[in-house]
Amino acid sequence: MSKLIQGILPALCTPFDDHLSLVVDRVPPLVRALIDARTNGFFVCGGTGEGRQMTVEERRRMCEAVCRTVAGQVPVVFHVGGTTTEDAVGLARHARSLGADAVASVAPADQPNDLAAAVKHYAAIGGASDLPFYVYWLATDADGSVTPGQFLEAMEAVPNFAGVKFTDTNFYKFQQLIDLSHGTLNAITGPDEMCIAGMAMGSDGAIGTTYNIMPRLYVDMYEAFHTGRIPEAMEMQVNANRVIALLISVGVLGGVKAMLGWRGLPVGPPRPPIPALTPEGETCLRAGLAAFDFDVA
Length: 297
Description:
This protein has a single domain (7-230), classed as Alpha-Beta Barrel (TIM Barrel). It has eleven helices and eight strands. It has helices spanning 27-36, 56-70, 85-98, 115-126, 148-154, 171-180, 195-200, 215-226, 230-250, 252-262, 279-291; strands at residues 7-10, 42-44, 76-79, 102-105, 133-138, 161-167, 186-189, 205-208. The protein has an eight-stranded parallel β-sheet with strand order 1-8-7-6-5-4-3-2. The chain is globular and about 50 Å long.
């Protein structure tokens, strides 16, 4: 069975200017650079893409700009959640005309940790178009009392349900979702720092924040793992995690967006409440990157 999402997909940063206005003209250079790095698709307007901090119209414009640049070269998953069900449904209805290949959503913001509420929300979104629908499973929002079997049974009520972006560290549960679906679930991991662990547990691919700044490292890791060069892949994960630890110390998204700007791909600072990189953080980040004995690319 062919699965839409495979390989390494950046959770794409949304470009703003210094006044925090959306700048769609900055989308094409960023997207082209990541395609040139052999990434396998894009996740648009998720957490990294600051979808919750954007208006519905901004999200439409961002998705359209990405899809226009991609022009069918790789899949584009449009995250429509993190807002009201009504707005999410509206975004999903227009997703195909914008050029998206699939839609995704987190659990309803006002009813987290409630599977019944999530199913109602997902079913409305999944039924709003004929595109594949992906659950964006966040550990903080998922109903922890539900078993993988119960979750999959509940998803039978969600039209066009195709897979899960699993942003959680419980990879036993992740593997159970794959096993109990008999391999039909398009299973994608979220935690960048555990990318190779997801591969070992049967993931089809990975979506992450730091893939914006280390696309080649993760693409090489994915290829090394799947061609049996496991020790090489493990070392790449160690190097990636050194960068992640540095980013955590200064603020991950602020650091990632700053690094893109340093590389000639300006995306501005994050919108509040996500903090921008401070001058002290910039000094720390530049020094830490310079100390690594591998390319952060």
